[in-house]
Amino acid sequence: MSNQPNLKPLYPPHPSQQEPEEESPQIQKTVDALSLLPHPEGGYYVETDRDPLRIPNPFAPTSDTDKDRSASTTIFYLLTPNRSFGAFHRNKGRTVHVWQRGRGRYVIIHADEVEGGKGKARVETFVVGPDVAAGERMQWVVEGGKYKASFLLEDGGSGESKEGLLISEVVVPGFEFADHDFLRREKMEELLTEEQVREMDWMLRV
Ligand code: GUN
C-alpha cells in the first residue's frame, strides 16, 4: 500500500535501551534538569505529581492491600536517540498525553476491542508533534486495555532529533505497576497478522 505509515525506526532499537550510551550535551541537560530516570519501557521518565487523594481501586482488586489507588499521577516522558522507543505495554487506567517538544510516532493495538480476547485487533498509528496543520497531535488519550508503543522521529526534515521527544502523561487513576504489563511476542502473534508482526516486533521489549 502506498500510503502505509512508515513504522521503521529512525534510530536503531538495539540493546542500548538497557544501558544507554552518553546522550548529547543538549539532551543530557534536559535529563539532569528534570531529574529523569531510565524507564523500563525505554526512554526516560520522572513522576512529577501523585495526587494524595486515594480512591477505590476500580480494577477488580485482587487483595485487601490492592483496594485503593492515587486519584491521578503525572510524569514527564522523554525519548532520545539512545533510548529511542517505548516498548509495547498497556495500563488498566486511561492516559492523557500532552506534547511538549520534538516528534514521535505512536502505535496503538486496540486489544480491548477483540471479542472474547481472541482474534485480530485494529491497529492505529499517528504522529505527535507541533505541526497541527499537518495532522500532528499535541494531545492524545489512550484508554486502558490498549497496547501502546512509541518511537522517536526526526525534527522537521532535519534527519535527526536534537532534543528528543518530550511529553507529559497523566494516568487516571494513578499509575501502579500492578496495573501495567508488557506485550509478549505470543500475544502479539495472536493480535496481529504475520506481516504486521514482522513490521512491529522491534517494538517488543528486548
Ligand atoms: N513508575 C514506572 N513507570 C511509571 C509510569 O509510567 N508512571 C508513573 N507515574 N510511575 C511510573
Characterise this structure:
The protein has 206 residues and is mainly beta. The chain has a single domain, classed as Jelly Rolls (Sandwich), CATH 2.60.120. Helices cover 11% and strands 35% of the residues. The protein has 3 helices and 13 strands. The protein has helices at 25-33, 185-191, 194-200, and strands at residues 37-38, 44-50, 54-56, 68-70, 73-79, 85-91, 94-101, 103-109, 123-128, 139-142, 147-153, 165-172, 180-182. The strands form 3 sheets. It has a 6-stranded antiparallel β-sheet with strand order 1-2-5-12-7-10, with no helix packed on it. The protein has a 5-stranded antiparallel β-sheet with strand order 9-8-11-6-13, with no helix packed on it. Strand 1 and strand 2 (44-50) form a beta hairpin. The chain is globular and about 50 Å long. The two termini are 29 Å apart. The mean pLDDT is 93. The chain binds guanine. Guanine is lined by residues 39, 45, 47, 73, 75, 171, 175.
- Can you tell me the CATH topology? Jelly Rolls
Unreliable runs, pLDDT <50, ≥5 residues? none
Small molecules bound in the structure, each named once: guanine
| H/E element sequence | HEEEEEEEEEEEEEHH
Question: Per the principal axes of the C-alpha atoms, what is the gross shape?
Answer: globular
Q: What summary fits the major beta sheet?
A: 6 strands, antiparallel
CATH architecture grouping? Sandwich
C-alpha end-to-end distance: 29 Å
Structural class: mainly beta
* Share of helix, binned: 10-25%
What is the name of the CATH superfamily? Jelly Rolls
CATH class: Mainly Beta
Largest beta sheet: strand ordering: 1-2-5-12-7-10
Overall tally of domains? 1
Please give the count of helices.
3
Q: What is the beta-strand fraction?
A: 25-35%
Mean pLDDT: 93
